[in-house]
Amino acid sequence: MVSFDSLLQKKSSIAVVGLGYVGLPLAVALSRHFDVIGFDINAARIGALNKGHDATNEVEDTALACCTVRFTSNATELDKAGIIIVAVPTPVDSHRTPDLTPVISASRTVGRHMSKGCVVCYESTVYPGVTEDECIPLLAQESGLRFPEDFTVGYSPERINPGDKVHRLETIRKVVSGSDAATADLLVLVYGAVVTAGIHRASCIKVAEAAKVIENTQRDINIALMNELALISDRLGIDTLEVLEAAGSKWNFLPFRPGLVGGHCIGVDPYYLTYKAEEIGCHPEVILAGRRINDGMGKYVAEICIKRLINADRCVSGARVGILGFTFKENVPDIRNTRVVDIIAELREYGISVLIHDPEADPAEAMREYGQELLPLDALKDLDALILAVPHEEFKALGVDALKAMFSGKPVTLIDIKSFWNKRAMLDAGFALWRL
Questions:
Q1: In the chain, which residues have pLDDT < 50?
Q2: Per the omega criterion (within 30 degrees of 0), is the bond before 102 cis?
Q3: Residue among 422, 412, 415 nearest 436 (CA)
Q4: How far apart are CA 152 and CA 146, in angstroms?
């Protein structure tokens, strides 16, 4: 096994496989102390990084320009690494079943190129057992090396929060585990060199894997509770945010808010846990109930929009509805698993023309991944309703006059999913406002 001193002296390298929202910030941070190889199979991504720009906006161009990471799409570069960290995505398929294709493919690539004594550490979110039951056999098969005599593994779940400039890699405590004590010791030192918040050493790999999926499952369930409260409050004719603000006056009330739940973590990770739970004979009723509620919120918002169009004497078929925001959350370009598509699909079922604007999302990516055209802001005109789906900072510049100019007449329906606008100001301006 490679020694920590040889890594510090840059006699051996650390490779990061997968340079997305997780891998790139990690590679850049590690390069401040170690010799780092950044590998990704996407040649276009590597080209952009070598030119000094990160399309995810997780690493600023200035930081990218001065980092020493050697970005490459040539897998043979992995031969030089004493530690290889795998940070590829782990999505779910159309049936909401864990899709391990990226992590399996990465394991095969790593196995073909890793050297004897290598430590392979996974950061990808998986259900308990994947690292040891799926990845290790693949590494051994492809490399011809024996585990644990010739190589060892670790697991350290990523905790990147896209777009968050406060809770960064360095400031979030890192969970670290290894297949043996020596491997865990080494990984604690490596991650400890960049993570100032400290290290939590898990007792084994399965514990670390389970910790990752449960931390996001907990958030998912809490948001589901808020969404269910929003449904109840709407039926009662009271404002959800006002209820939460009143309840939040108690010191131990948790500040969760209702909304669409998408993205690569909260909207995905619970399915990894429920898949494994059902495999071992447990039926996770609470988790699946939370998923069912959160997955249904897009349809619910669309139905509210349709009802309000009818109440405003607007013809539903052929109505023009604008949507502000397409990414899975505010102030990031990430469109993975965005649940805005659920609103769009439901509205189009009723023959409604949907016009979407998002200043953060890449229009080419939206078309490629979802077949969805993103329009410039001035294309949102002659609207019958407007939905604020994602509260990007740029939308704060839209004043009352700019919003009114988007509509074809009165009354004008505003649907504010995230309670982004001031309720009193919008009502005083004559908008028919509904918020989740």
A1: none
A2: no
A3: 415
A4: 9
Q: Which of 18, 327, 21 is nearest to 168 (CA)?
A: 21
Stated pTM of the model: 0.93
SS3 content of the chain, % helix, strand, coil (to 5): 45, 15, 40
Task: Write out the two tokens for 297.
Answer: 């919120």
pLDDT digits (tens, 9 = 90+) for 186-224: 999 999 999 999 999 999 999 999 999 999 999 999 999
Determine phi and psi for 390, rounding to 5 degrees: -130, 120
Backbone angles phi and psi of 167, in degrees to 5: -90, 95
Q: Is the dihedral of CA 194, 198, 202, 207 positive or negative?
A: negative
Q: Look up tokens 């769009």; give the residue.
A: 344
Give, rounded to a whole angstrom, the gap between the first and last alpha carbons of the chain: 54
Q: Which tokens sit at 143? A: 């490399």
The tens digit of pLDDT for each residue in 1-21 reads 999 999 999 999 999 999 999
Pairing type for strands 35-39 and 70-72 reads parallel
Given a contact cutoff of 8 angstroms between Cβ atoms, the answer to whether 356 and 367 are in contact is no
Q: Where are the beta strands (DSSP E) in 293-419?
A: 320-324, 353-357, 385-388, 412-416
DSSP per-residue codes, 329-350: STT----TT-THHHHHHHHHHT
Report whether 289 contacts 224 (CB < 8 A): yes
* Rounded Cα gap, residues 218 and 213, in angstroms: 9
Dihedral sign computed on CA atoms, order 267, 270, 272, 275: negative
240/115 Cα distance (integer angstroms): 57
Structure tokens at 263: 């993205």
State the Cα–Cα distance between residues 99 and 109, nearest whole angstrom. 17
For residue 171, how far is the Cα from the chain centroid? 18
CB of 385 within 8 A of CB of 406? no
User: Which tokens go with 276?
Assistant: 């494994």
Name 123's Cβ contacts closer than 8 Å, sequence gap at least 6. 22, 23, 26, 85, 86, 87, 155, 156, 157, 158
Radius of gyration of the chain (CA): 24
> Could you give the CA distance from residue 297 to residue 290 in angstroms, rounded to a whole number?
11
Tell me the catalytic residues.
265
